[in-house]
Design a protein that fits this description.
With about 140 residues, the protein is mostly beta strands. It contains one helix and ten strands; from the N terminus they run E-E-E-E-E-E-H-E-E-E-E. The protein has one domain: Pnp Oxidase, Chain A (Roll). The strands form two sheets. Strands 1, 2, 3, 6, 7, 8, 9 and 10 form an eight-stranded antiparallel sheet that branches. A two-stranded antiparallel sheet has the order 4-5. Strand 1 and strand 2 form a beta hairpin. The chain is globular and about 65 Å long.
């Protein structure tokens, strides 16, 4: 029997782990991808290509509701533009644990943020991508 859960993550961003702000209510989608670059290490005499891990190339993409109110999405994200920052995503709102790990990117970079992305009669959202950074997992409460 497979184990599944209803997607309801928490999302926090900020300049460092101690200063992160919960923006869960401003986010409708989140994708954190950890990628180890594949470096070929095939040598003479081998009959198949082999690979070894290179640098990690991590990304976190958020779909954010556009809000310009104090302490909402634009107010929290705009100061992070062009800086190294921290993002933490948990599968649920429960405390960090082995069954609710906190997935963290530190020193991740926010290169751009749409200022306006609007269509008549639609709820305004925009996508932002955090690039790079060091990946870690927190399972301690």
């Amino acid at each position: 029997m497979s184990s599944t859960y209803l997607s309801n993550p928490t999302v926090k961003v900020g300049t460092a782990i101690g200063t992160i702000v919960d923006i869960t209510t401003e986010v409708s989608a989140c994708s954190l991808v950890v990628t180890a670059e594949a470096l070929e290490d095939t040598s003479f005499g081998q009959t198949s290509r082999t690979m070894t891990s290179g640098l990690f190339s991590n990304t976190c993409t958020l779909t954010v509701y556009a809000s310009y109110a104090a302490s909402k999405s634009y107010a929290v994200l705009a100061p992070l533009l062009g800086t190294k920052c921290t993002i933490k995503v948990n599968p649920t709102s429960a405390a960090d644990s082995a069954t609710n790990p906190g997935f963290i990117l530190t020193d991740t970079y926010l290169a751009s943020i749409p200022v306006v992305n609007a269509s008549l009669g639609e709820l305004s959202t925009y996508e932002i991508e955090f690039q790079g950074g060091t990946y870690s997992v927190d399972v301690t409460a």
